[in-house]
Amino acid sequence: MREVAIIGIGHTKFGIASKTLIELFSEAALQATDDANIDPKQIEALFQGAALPGFEEGQVMPAAFSAADLNLGPIPATRCEGACASASVAIRDAAMWVGAGAYDLVLAGGVEKASTMGVSFATRTFAMACHASTEGPAGLTFPGVFAMAARVYARKYGIPLEKLREQMAYVSVKNHRHGALNPLAHFYKKYGALKIEEVLNSRLVADPLTLMDCCPFSDGASALVLCAAEVARKYTDDPVYILGTGQGSGTPLSKMEDLTKPVSRIRSARAAFKQADLSPEDIDMVEIHDCFTIAELIALESIGFFTWGEAAEATATGQTDLGGKIPVNMSGGLIGKGHPIGATGASQIYWLVKQMRGEAPNGNQINPVPEYGMTDTLGGDFGTLCHIILGRSKR
Amino acid sequence: MYKEYTILTHADYENGIKERKLLGLKCRACTRITCPPMPVCQWCGSRDLERTELSGEGELITFTVIRVPPEGFEAEVPYIPCLVRTKEGPSVVGRLDHDAERATQDLLGKPVKLNGSFTKGDKFSGGPHTCPVFGVRE
């Protein structure tokens, strides 16, 4: 396999958008091609994550229309769907095709207009990524699944539920603090001074998770230009390299051995580390799929940044913030930055690249500029997991 | 001739729940139980399966109380989805028949028993589906 580089990045404002999802994606895509100093006509294929466009705008097959909207010509344009991990799956597949030598220059990313559905319908459509026939009639929702996982976590490690709720609240406070500094975040300048008590006392969504334990429904798009690493320097002085990727698939909830140790995530992360020939200790920063506060803790342990049962206390003592053992979600994460589900994986990469270029917002930038970064993206209730490891130098 | 791989269909499984029977599959290769049904053993992947009935008894692994429901579930709030590990080994997702205001962490690990079924469908679900309802055994 050839090595693959990221030479251009684009990202719309996350939040509530009036533009169509095709327009949103085009905006991110043109930012990315301008950033890469290429003519969009040079793009050979498009890989687009989009989870629920049929329910949002009555639009399936958005990838083809995005290619048309950008006047890319009749190139192959493929929609990738892995629920909230859709963009990461798209980027990983794009990297595979470039790595395999089928294309030299491709566009990958994702888009979503989740807010158009409203909370009630969005809760229904998001829950479609649960196992429909067994979890559907039970009325499971995504906050519900992670609320169930939080209870297992508390029991397993002998943490009183009220204490765990407080430790989880630190995730929300941290991610909102960084999201409030990010001009493209859904909650820019909103909850920068959020207090633990405010997380605990906001209204219950799925016991024990409150509204402030949850990420919002957002609109937005993000796109990347990928090329063969050997020609990356032709386009840019500061390419970022994809050093390793992993993807894993889960099961219906009923077939999971332990909700706090998702095998899909463990396998995916290990595959990415193996390909990159790196270990968790080498990673300088990570963008974690914090759809809910407890999700960040489970992810940190599954990837190997902390041992089992340690992430809650580590987070409460600042080890996942700037200056800690591993800065997590310095973009604001899904909680602070917003979660346009089909775009999230690309947004995670966007903010890692910004960090590696030293262009992250003041208060979020890691110093010195990080050498290695990692993304963790989750779709469904551990159904689709994807990890991507980036570096400033080739393998 | 067309070969049928499914030994216990999901419809059979749901019909069983409606009659308060938890149906599953016993693996002749590894002797373990698969439930809800799959075309292969959920533990070893063998296709050498036969229908069996589980006791309907198990342990409450976890639950949540849904306060913000999906569209179509408004009338049921608050309700309690749960995960139960059956005595026979496999886990099932269902609902817990319990006072939502008294559903606290100390319920985890309690013995539960199948005591009913809940059927629900909307225009997206391909018809109604049925899940088990469990009650806590005090």
Write the layout of secondary structure elements.
The complex is a heterodimer of chains A (395) and B (138).
Chain A (H helix, E strand, L loop, with lengths): L3 E8 L9 H15 L9 E5 L3 H5 L4 H8 L7 E4 L5 H14 L5 E9 L4 H9 L5 H4 L6 H15 L4 H19 L16 H6 L2 E4 L1 E2 L8 E10 L3 H4 L4 E10 L13 H14 L8 E3 L5 H11 L7 H6 L16 H5 L6 H13 L15 E8 L4 E8 L4
Parallel strand pairs in A: 2-3, 2-4, 9-10
Antiparallel strand pairs in A: 1-7, 1-8, 4-7, 5-6, 8-11, 10-11
Helix pairs in contact in A: 1-3, 8-12
Chain B lengths: L9 H9 L3 E6 L5 E2 L14 E6 L2 E7 L1 E2 L14 E6 L4 E7 L13 E10 L8 E8 L2
Parallel strand pairs in B: 7-9
Antiparallel strand pairs in B: 1-2, 1-3, 4-6, 4-8, 6-7, 8-9
Tell me the total number of β-strands of chain B: 9
The CATH topology of the domain at 4-118 and 217-235 in chain A is what?
Peroxisomal Thiolase, Chain A, domain 1
Strand fraction of chain A: 15-25%
SS element count, helices of chain A: 15
Query: If interface size is counted as residues with C-beta under 8 Å from the partner's C-beta, which chains form the largest one?
Result: A-B, 41 and 44 residues
Question: How many individual helices of chain B?
Answer: 1
Strand order of the largest sheet of chain A: 3-2-4-7-1-8-11-10-9
The top level CATH class name of the domain at 4-118 and 217-235 in chain A: Alpha Beta
Radius of gyration of chain B: 16 Å
Q: Percent of residues of chain A in helical segments?
A: 25-40%
Q: Which stretches of chain B of 5+ consecutive residues score pLDDT under 50?
A: none
Domains counted in the coordinates of chain B: how many? 1
User: Based on CA inertia axes, which overall geometry of chain A fits?
Assistant: globular
